[in-house]
Structure formats: C-alpha cells, structure tokens
Design brief:
CATH class: Alpha Beta
CATH superfamily: Flavin prenyltransferase-like
CATH topology: Rossmann fold
Number of domains: 1
Protein name: Flavin prenyltransferase UbiX
Number of strands: 6
Family: Belongs to the UbiX/PAD1 family.
Order of helices and strands: EHEHHEEHHEHEHH
Oligomer: single chain
Radius of gyration: 17 Å
CATH architecture: 3-Layer(aba) Sandwich
Shape: globular
Strand order of the largest sheet: 3-2-1-4-5-6
Distance between the termini: 40 Å
Keywords: Flavoprotein, FMN, Prenyltransferase, Transferase
EC number: 2.5.1.129
Pfam family, one: Flavoprotein
Helix content: 40-55%
C-alpha cells in the first residue's frame, strides 16, 4: 500500500481514550492502513472510560473496527521487533492520541522503552511527521519543558483543547473537532467540523 495511506497510531493511558478510538475509526473510514499500538495503561482506560471488554484485545478491536473499509494492524506494546520499530518501514507519520505525560517524557528523552516510544523515535530520526495529543491538567514545568523540547524538534503538539466556535452539541462533536485538527496537521482532508468562515461563505452563495 502507498505509504501516504499508512499511519501509526498510539493510544496511551491518559484519560481521553475516546479521542484515539475516534481517530482510528476516522482513518479506517477513509480507507487508511492503521498500525495501532495501545499501552497496557491505555487498554485499562479504554475499559474504564468506554466500557470495552478487553479480555481479548484483538477480538475487541475486531468488534469495534472490523466493519470499516480500511485495514487495521495491531502491534502489542512490547513487540519491539514490529515493522514500525524500523526506520526502513515507510509510513505517512505517527499520532499518539491521547498522549500521557509518561509517554511524552519517554519520547522527549529517547528512551524507546516500548513500541510506542520506539516508533515515535523512528519518526524523529527519519524526519517524518509526529503528532502528540497531550491530555493532562494541570501541567507542571517538566511537562512543559518536555513539550517545548519536542516542539523544537518539529513535533506537532495538539493538546486536547476542543474549541466551541463551531457550535458543538454533543461530546462526539468535541472529539471530532480535535481529531479533525490532528488530521489537518498531517494534510489529510476531512469534514469533521465546520470551519471558521464556512457559515459566511454559505450565506454569500
């Protein structure tokens, strides 16, 4: 498959697993090939926040994503021999959504202690797009310093801060907005939210 249609997605143990799930749904709906890695803490949050039965993780993924047109490749968090751990494996980029402060620190310091951190390190060393969606509050100086360090390396920081100018009516509207901002940063077209100025253009038609 064309590398432009292959995306690596990491879901960590930060609150907000709904963001990562919506991202995967959206990419698969666009017929992308998604290489997915979920941390152990990420699986726990998915179970607690979304009510998934995660006793059989691959079965849970098939249940929730199997009917979508794209292809999902699941990699266990400890599989450091996975394809996405190598720089010779070409992809469009990587998104960690949501990104815990522990994962952020691991990426910022190059520890590569699990597959999410290693795959992110590959994106950095190969100069490929890397997008992190930090989800924590309040933030202390170490969090902010790690974000600044990565931002200076070209990592896109898109904190989980949904906007309200487009008139969201549901939680899903807020989630879709943030997913849309992530896709914008990678140049992937979508229609997940109404953009500022769209209403004025429609009124002028």
């Amino acid at each position: 498959m064309d590398k432009a249609k292959m995306i690596v997605v990491g879901i960590t143990g930060a609150s907000g697993s709904i963001y990562g799930v919506k991202l995967v749904e959206t990419l698969l709906g666009m017929n992308f090939l998604v290489h997915l890695v979920v941390s152990n803490a990420g699986w726990r949050v998915i179970k607690e926040e979304l009510g998934w039965n995660t006793s059989d993780r691959e079965a849970a993924l098939q249940e929730h994503f199997g009917a979508l047109p794209g292809k999902l490749v699941y990699h266990p968090i400890a599989d450091i021999g996975a394809s996405i751990a190598s720089g010779s494996f070409l992809t469009h980029g990587m998104i960690v959504m949501p990104c815990s402060m522990g994962t952020l620190s691991s990426i910022a310091n190059g520890t590569s202690d699990n597959l999410i951190a290693r795959a992110a390190d590959v994106m950095l060393k190969e100069g490929r797009p890397l997008v992190l969606v930090p989800r924590e509050t309040p933030l202390h100086a170490i969090h902010l310093e790690n974000m600044l360090k990565l931002a200076r390396l070209g990592v896109r920081m898109i904190p989980a801060m949904p906007a309200f100018y487009f008139g969201p009516q549901t939680i899903d509207d807020l989630v879709a907005f943030l997913v849309g901002k992530v896709l914008d940063s990678l140049g992937i077209e979508h229609a997940l939210f109404r953009r500022w100025g769209d209403q004025d253009e429609q009124q002028g038609e």
